[in-house]
Amino acid sequence: MKKLLFIGAGGLIGKYFIQIASKDFSITATYLKHDSIPRKNNVKYIKLDLTKRKNVLNVVHKIKPDTIVLAASIGDIDYCEKHKSQAYQVNYLGVKNISDGIRNTSIKLIFLSTSYVYLGRKKIYRESDKLCPLNYYGYTKTLAEKYITKNNNHYVILRLSTMYGWNYKTHRQNIATNLIKQAGNNNKIYVVRDRYTNFLYAGDAATCLKKVIKKNINYTILNIAGERCISYYEFALMLCKYFSIETEKIIPAESNFFNNLTPRPRNTCLDCTQAEAIIKFHPMSISNGLSRMKHNKDD
User: Fold this and answer.
1) What CATH superfamily is the domain 3-166+196-229+264-295?
2) Which residue, of 17, 19, 102, 121, has the greatest Cβ tally within 10 A?
3) pLDDT of 242-270, one tens digit each?
4) d(Cα 295, Cα 299) in Å, to the nearest integer?
5) Interior CA angle at 189 toward 255 and 161, to 5°?
6) Domain ranges in the chain?
Protein backbone atom coordinates (compact mmCIF):
# COMPACT_ATOMS: atom_id res chain seq x y z
CA MET A 1 0.00 0.00 0.00
CA LYS A 2 1.35 3.41 -1.00
CA LYS A 3 2.53 5.52 1.94
CA LEU A 4 1.15 9.06 1.90
CA LEU A 5 1.96 12.15 3.95
CA PHE A 6 -0.96 14.59 3.68
CA ILE A 7 0.01 18.04 4.97
CA GLY A 8 -2.98 20.20 5.86
CA ALA A 9 -5.68 17.69 6.82
CA GLY A 10 -7.85 20.37 8.45
CA GLY A 11 -8.59 22.08 5.16
CA LEU A 12 -11.53 21.56 2.83
CA ILE A 13 -9.88 19.20 0.38
CA GLY A 14 -8.17 17.37 3.24
CA LYS A 15 -11.56 16.62 4.78
CA TYR A 16 -13.01 15.19 1.58
CA PHE A 17 -9.86 13.38 0.49
CA ILE A 18 -9.32 11.46 3.72
CA GLN A 19 -12.95 10.34 3.66
CA ILE A 20 -12.60 8.73 0.23
CA ALA A 21 -8.96 7.59 0.31
CA SER A 22 -8.16 6.38 3.83
CA LYS A 23 -8.59 2.74 2.78
CA ASP A 24 -6.52 3.13 -0.39
CA PHE A 25 -3.35 4.53 1.12
CA SER A 26 -1.39 4.38 4.35
CA ILE A 27 -1.97 8.00 5.37
CA THR A 28 -0.23 10.19 7.90
CA ALA A 29 -2.19 13.44 8.09
CA THR A 30 -0.88 16.64 9.61
CA TYR A 31 -2.67 19.57 11.20
CA LEU A 32 -1.57 22.75 12.94
CA LYS A 33 -4.47 24.46 14.70
CA HIS A 34 -7.42 22.20 14.02
CA ASP A 35 -6.60 19.39 16.45
CA SER A 36 -10.31 18.79 17.04
CA ILE A 37 -10.92 17.43 13.52
CA PRO A 38 -12.63 14.00 13.48
CA ARG A 39 -10.21 11.08 13.28
CA LYS A 40 -10.32 8.15 10.91
CA ASN A 41 -9.24 4.98 12.69
CA ASN A 42 -6.83 3.92 9.96
CA VAL A 43 -5.17 7.37 9.60
CA LYS A 44 -2.31 8.59 11.77
CA TYR A 45 -2.50 12.27 12.79
CA ILE A 46 0.42 14.45 13.83
CA LYS A 47 0.86 18.15 14.50
CA LEU A 48 3.24 19.94 12.16
CA ASP A 49 4.26 23.54 11.67
CA LEU A 50 5.60 23.98 8.13
CA THR A 51 7.70 26.96 9.18
CA LYS A 52 9.77 24.84 11.63
CA ARG A 53 12.31 23.53 9.19
CA LYS A 54 13.98 21.02 11.55
CA ASN A 55 10.62 19.50 12.51
CA VAL A 56 9.56 19.26 8.87
CA LEU A 57 12.76 17.43 7.91
CA ASN A 58 12.43 15.08 10.88
CA VAL A 59 8.83 14.15 9.97
CA VAL A 60 9.72 13.44 6.35
CA HIS A 61 12.74 11.38 7.40
CA LYS A 62 10.74 9.39 9.95
CA ILE A 63 7.71 8.63 7.77
CA LYS A 64 9.57 8.10 4.48
CA PRO A 65 6.42 8.52 2.36
CA ASP A 66 6.10 7.57 -1.28
CA THR A 67 4.07 10.73 -1.93
CA ILE A 68 3.55 14.03 -0.12
CA VAL A 69 0.39 16.05 -0.71
CA LEU A 70 1.02 19.64 0.31
CA ALA A 71 -2.37 21.25 0.93
CA ALA A 72 -1.53 23.45 3.91
CA SER A 73 -1.44 27.21 3.40
CA ILE A 74 -2.87 30.49 4.59
CA GLY A 75 -5.71 30.75 2.09
CA ASP A 76 -7.49 33.85 3.38
CA ILE A 77 -6.65 36.42 0.70
CA ASP A 78 -7.31 39.49 2.81
CA TYR A 79 -5.36 38.05 5.75
CA CYS A 80 -2.38 37.36 3.48
CA GLU A 81 -2.43 40.95 2.23
CA LYS A 82 -2.43 42.31 5.78
CA HIS A 83 0.06 39.80 7.19
CA LYS A 84 2.56 39.42 4.38
CA SER A 85 5.42 38.19 6.53
CA GLN A 86 3.35 35.32 7.92
CA ALA A 87 1.95 34.47 4.49
CA TYR A 88 5.49 34.36 3.09
CA GLN A 89 6.65 32.13 5.95
CA VAL A 90 3.87 29.58 5.48
CA ASN A 91 2.96 29.71 1.80
CA TYR A 92 6.49 29.97 0.44
CA LEU A 93 9.14 29.10 3.04
CA GLY A 94 7.00 26.26 4.40
CA VAL A 95 6.77 24.80 0.90
CA LYS A 96 10.50 25.32 0.47
CA ASN A 97 11.15 23.30 3.65
CA ILE A 98 9.19 20.35 2.27
CA SER A 99 10.76 20.68 -1.16
CA ASP A 100 14.28 20.77 0.27
CA GLY A 101 13.51 17.79 2.52
CA ILE A 102 12.81 15.49 -0.43
CA ARG A 103 15.27 16.84 -2.99
CA ASN A 104 17.22 14.09 -4.74
CA THR A 105 14.82 11.42 -3.48
CA SER A 106 12.13 9.39 -5.22
CA ILE A 107 9.37 11.00 -3.13
CA LYS A 108 6.75 12.69 -5.28
CA LEU A 109 5.42 16.08 -4.19
CA ILE A 110 1.86 16.99 -5.14
CA PHE A 111 1.42 20.69 -4.50
CA LEU A 112 -2.05 22.21 -4.35
CA SER A 113 -1.88 25.65 -5.91
CA THR A 114 -4.56 28.10 -6.98
CA SER A 115 -6.17 29.83 -9.95
CA TYR A 116 -5.07 33.08 -8.27
CA VAL A 117 -1.64 32.74 -9.89
CA TYR A 118 -3.31 34.13 -13.04
CA LEU A 119 -3.96 37.83 -13.65
CA GLY A 120 -7.62 37.37 -14.55
CA ARG A 121 -7.90 39.30 -17.81
CA LYS A 122 -8.31 36.38 -20.20
CA LYS A 123 -11.54 34.51 -20.87
CA ILE A 124 -9.98 31.18 -19.96
CA TYR A 125 -6.62 30.10 -18.61
CA ARG A 126 -4.44 27.16 -19.64
CA GLU A 127 -1.49 25.79 -17.71
CA SER A 128 0.98 27.37 -20.14
CA ASP A 129 -0.34 30.91 -19.60
CA LYS A 130 1.88 33.43 -17.88
CA LEU A 131 1.76 33.59 -14.10
CA CYS A 132 0.96 37.11 -12.99
CA PRO A 133 -0.75 37.19 -9.56
CA LEU A 134 -2.84 40.20 -8.60
CA ASN A 135 -2.48 39.87 -4.82
CA TYR A 136 0.01 38.66 -2.23
CA TYR A 137 -1.68 35.29 -1.72
CA GLY A 138 -1.28 34.54 -5.42
CA TYR A 139 2.30 35.82 -5.28
CA THR A 140 3.29 33.38 -2.51
CA LYS A 141 1.74 30.49 -4.42
CA THR A 142 3.60 31.54 -7.55
CA LEU A 143 6.91 31.62 -5.65
CA ALA A 144 6.19 28.14 -4.30
CA GLU A 145 5.36 26.75 -7.72
CA LYS A 146 8.54 28.13 -9.24
CA TYR A 147 10.69 26.73 -6.44
CA ILE A 148 9.20 23.25 -6.80
CA THR A 149 9.58 23.11 -10.58
CA LYS A 150 13.20 24.21 -10.30
CA ASN A 151 14.32 22.01 -7.40
CA ASN A 152 12.30 18.79 -7.34
CA ASN A 153 12.75 15.62 -9.36
CA HIS A 154 9.20 14.35 -8.91
CA TYR A 155 6.24 16.70 -8.70
CA VAL A 156 2.70 17.44 -9.82
CA ILE A 157 1.14 20.87 -9.33
CA LEU A 158 -2.65 21.15 -9.24
CA ARG A 159 -4.05 24.65 -9.77
CA LEU A 160 -7.44 24.44 -8.11
CA SER A 161 -10.36 26.72 -8.81
CA THR A 162 -12.45 28.25 -5.99
CA MET A 163 -13.81 25.32 -3.97
CA TYR A 164 -17.04 24.80 -2.09
CA GLY A 165 -18.34 22.11 0.26
CA TRP A 166 -18.83 21.36 3.97
CA ASN A 167 -15.73 22.48 5.84
CA TYR A 168 -14.83 21.43 9.39
CA LYS A 169 -16.36 23.75 11.97
CA THR A 170 -12.86 24.80 13.06
CA HIS A 171 -11.82 25.81 9.55
CA ARG A 172 -12.55 28.95 7.60
CA GLN A 173 -15.75 29.21 5.60
CA ASN A 174 -15.90 28.87 1.82
CA ILE A 175 -18.26 30.63 -0.58
CA ALA A 176 -21.11 28.13 -0.10
CA THR A 177 -20.98 27.76 3.69
CA ASN A 178 -20.53 31.50 4.12
CA LEU A 179 -23.65 32.23 2.05
CA ILE A 180 -25.66 29.65 3.98
CA LYS A 181 -24.52 31.11 7.29
CA GLN A 182 -25.34 34.68 6.27
CA ALA A 183 -28.76 33.64 5.01
CA GLY A 184 -29.47 32.02 8.38
CA ASN A 185 -28.77 35.36 10.05
CA ASN A 186 -31.44 37.03 7.86
CA ASN A 187 -28.87 39.38 6.39
CA LYS A 188 -28.91 40.94 2.97
CA ILE A 189 -26.06 39.31 1.12
CA TYR A 190 -24.08 41.36 -1.37
CA VAL A 191 -22.43 39.13 -3.97
CA VAL A 192 -20.06 40.26 -6.69
CA ARG A 193 -21.47 39.84 -10.21
CA ASP A 194 -18.48 40.83 -12.34
CA ARG A 195 -16.07 38.11 -11.19
CA TYR A 196 -16.12 34.68 -12.82
CA THR A 197 -14.76 31.21 -12.24
CA ASN A 198 -15.70 27.54 -12.66
CA PHE A 199 -16.46 26.66 -9.05
CA LEU A 200 -15.04 23.32 -7.91
CA TYR A 201 -16.88 20.93 -5.58
CA ALA A 202 -14.41 19.74 -2.93
CA GLY A 203 -15.50 16.13 -3.37
CA ASP A 204 -14.64 16.36 -7.06
CA ALA A 205 -11.25 17.88 -6.21
CA ALA A 206 -10.57 15.01 -3.79
CA THR A 207 -11.45 12.40 -6.43
CA CYS A 208 -9.13 14.10 -8.87
CA LEU A 209 -6.31 14.14 -6.31
CA LYS A 210 -6.78 10.44 -5.68
CA LYS A 211 -6.44 9.76 -9.41
CA VAL A 212 -3.26 11.83 -9.59
CA ILE A 213 -1.67 9.89 -6.72
CA LYS A 214 -2.52 6.53 -8.28
CA LYS A 215 -1.37 7.49 -11.76
CA ASN A 216 2.33 7.57 -12.54
CA ILE A 217 2.65 11.13 -13.88
CA ASN A 218 5.49 13.53 -13.28
CA TYR A 219 6.71 17.06 -14.08
CA THR A 220 3.09 18.00 -14.63
CA ILE A 221 0.92 21.05 -13.94
CA LEU A 222 -2.85 20.62 -14.19
CA ASN A 223 -5.78 22.99 -13.92
CA ILE A 224 -8.62 21.47 -11.89
CA ALA A 225 -12.02 23.19 -11.93
CA GLY A 226 -15.77 22.70 -12.31
CA GLU A 227 -17.62 22.22 -15.57
CA ARG A 228 -18.94 25.72 -16.29
CA CYS A 229 -17.67 29.25 -15.76
CA ILE A 230 -20.20 31.55 -14.06
CA SER A 231 -20.23 34.67 -11.90
CA TYR A 232 -20.21 34.59 -8.12
CA TYR A 233 -23.71 36.09 -8.20
CA GLU A 234 -24.97 33.28 -10.47
CA PHE A 235 -23.44 30.73 -8.11
CA ALA A 236 -25.21 32.34 -5.16
CA LEU A 237 -28.56 32.15 -6.94
CA MET A 238 -28.00 28.47 -7.75
CA LEU A 239 -27.13 27.77 -4.13
CA CYS A 240 -30.37 29.47 -3.04
CA LYS A 241 -32.32 26.96 -5.13
CA TYR A 242 -30.74 23.94 -3.45
CA PHE A 243 -30.77 25.28 0.10
CA SER A 244 -34.18 26.98 0.06
CA ILE A 245 -32.80 30.49 0.53
CA GLU A 246 -34.89 33.43 -0.64
CA THR A 247 -33.21 34.90 -3.70
CA GLU A 248 -34.36 38.37 -2.61
CA LYS A 249 -31.64 38.22 0.04
CA ILE A 250 -28.95 38.05 -2.67
CA ILE A 251 -27.98 41.54 -3.87
CA PRO A 252 -25.72 41.81 -6.95
CA ALA A 253 -22.81 44.24 -6.67
CA GLU A 254 -19.82 45.34 -8.73
CA SER A 255 -16.27 44.61 -7.60
CA ASN A 256 -15.63 48.24 -6.64
CA PHE A 257 -18.49 48.01 -4.12
CA PHE A 258 -16.16 45.91 -1.95
CA ASN A 259 -13.47 48.58 -1.72
CA ASN A 260 -12.18 47.29 1.62
CA LEU A 261 -11.19 43.94 0.13
CA THR A 262 -7.92 42.91 -1.47
CA PRO A 263 -8.05 43.01 -5.29
CA ARG A 264 -9.11 39.73 -6.89
CA PRO A 265 -8.71 38.65 -10.52
CA ARG A 266 -11.90 39.25 -12.51
CA ASN A 267 -11.77 35.96 -14.37
CA THR A 268 -10.16 32.74 -13.16
CA CYS A 269 -11.96 30.37 -15.50
CA LEU A 270 -9.73 27.34 -16.07
CA ASP A 271 -9.31 25.10 -19.08
CA CYS A 272 -9.15 21.49 -17.79
CA THR A 273 -8.39 19.82 -21.13
CA GLN A 274 -5.04 18.48 -19.91
CA ALA A 275 -6.54 16.94 -16.77
CA GLU A 276 -9.28 15.35 -18.85
CA ALA A 277 -6.67 13.79 -21.14
CA ILE A 278 -4.09 12.73 -18.56
CA ILE A 279 -6.18 11.52 -15.60
CA LYS A 280 -9.62 11.20 -17.24
CA PHE A 281 -10.95 14.03 -15.09
CA HIS A 282 -14.50 14.97 -16.07
CA PRO A 283 -15.51 18.18 -14.27
CA MET A 284 -18.70 18.02 -12.26
CA SER A 285 -21.49 20.47 -12.98
CA ILE A 286 -22.37 23.02 -10.30
CA SER A 287 -25.87 21.53 -10.12
CA ASN A 288 -24.45 18.10 -9.30
CA GLY A 289 -21.98 19.54 -6.82
CA LEU A 290 -24.63 21.53 -4.94
CA SER A 291 -26.97 18.55 -4.98
CA ARG A 292 -24.31 16.33 -3.44
CA MET A 293 -23.50 18.99 -0.88
CA LYS A 294 -27.17 19.27 0.06
CA HIS A 295 -27.68 15.55 0.54
CA ASN A 296 -24.32 14.77 2.15
CA LYS A 297 -23.81 17.26 4.94
CA ASP A 298 -21.38 14.92 6.68
CA ASP A 299 -19.60 13.74 3.53
Assistant:
1) NAD(P)-binding Rossmann-like Domain (3.40.50.720)
2) 17
3) 999 999 999 999 999 998 889 999 999 99
4) 9
5) 55
6) 3-166+196-229+264-295
